[in-house]
Amino acid sequence: MYKTLMDQVGNTPLVKIQRLVNPQTNSIVLGKLEGNNPAGSVKDRPAFNMIKQAQLRGQIKPGDTLIEATSGNTGIALAMVAAMMGYKMKLIMPSNMSMERKASMAAYGAELITVSKEEGMEGARDLANRMQAEGQGIVLDQFANPDNPLAHYHSTGPEIWRDTQGKVTHFVSAMGTTGTIMGTSMYLKEQNPQVQIVGVQPEDGAAIPGIRRWPAEYMPKIYESTRVDRIIDMSQTLAEDTMRAMATQEGIFAGVSSGGAMAAALKVASEVENAVIVAIVCDRGDRYLSTGVFG
């Protein structure tokens, strides 16, 4: 039986980090390579699930126009799924996002609308809501849509549990919309309440693509603080240094937020014993080349 593209979302590799881990530690650090999804990031999972579930509920139908505010990966994923399932896609993003991200969205046929760097993601979200109110399309709203975390509850979490044979002790994820950490936490805590969930956010002043410190009024509605045991504030320098080290020492070519998640996972590994720590490597590094972060 032939498979379709949607059958290829998920079931990404879980690989052992070999050289970045302190050789004195007896803990294992694993990276889940979400760049292996069809559109190249962890956001393929919620993008597919949000459109699929809205269609099943009869809220949308092929031919409709969908609208979403995005900093990049969700937009690329939604553009792919929209093309695959027959929808028109309008994506709103800050103008300072990388050229690769913008070009990828356009390649899938999405219409791009930019707001200023100063308006940022908050401004993009406000504009999406205004466009929906004006009848220009339907906002999926990854920040409040339960189908975002449920994608990870039904796929990411079970895959990690399966591939570690239930031995995972810590799960580390950068936090943007927080869908990944919410849904995966929900699943893993059901299997073993002792699994520690570690979120990563930028420290004050850091600009790490894809992750945010949200003002209270813009905090994603899907976020529940009780599902996260610890939050690590990440410096931009450490995230970028770890991202480059992942490429040169592990052969894992990923983006800056993945570097932040891995840096946090390595920090946890240095603090605990006999742990199995899984970090989300959320995308590939090729969509950041034009920014110069790889030198």
Brief rundown of the structure:
The chain has 295 residues and is of the alpha/beta class. Helices cover 37% and strands 17% of the residues.
From the structure above, extract its key features.
single chain; 295 residues; alpha/beta; Rossmann fold; four-stranded parallel sheet; 9 helices; globular
Can you tell me about this structure?
The chain is α/β, with parallel strands linked by helices. It folds into two domains: 5-41 and 148-291, 3-Layer(aba) Sandwich (Rossmann fold), CATH 3.40.50.1100; 43-139, 3-Layer(aba) Sandwich (Rossmann fold), CATH 3.40.50.1100. Helix content is 37%, strand content 17%. It has nine helices and ten strands. It has helices at residues 44-56, 73-85, 99-107, 120-133, 147-154, 156-163, 179-191, 236-250, 256-271; strands at residues 14-16, 28-33, 65-69, 88-94, 111-115, 138-139, 170-174, 196-202, 230-234, 276-281. The strands form two sheets. It has a six-stranded mixed beta sheet. Strands 5-4-3-6 form a four-stranded parallel beta sheet, with helices on both faces. Strand 4, helix 3 (99-107) and strand 5 (111-115) form a beta-alpha-beta unit. Helix 1 crosses helix 2 (73-85) and helix 6 (156-163) crosses helix 7 (179-191).
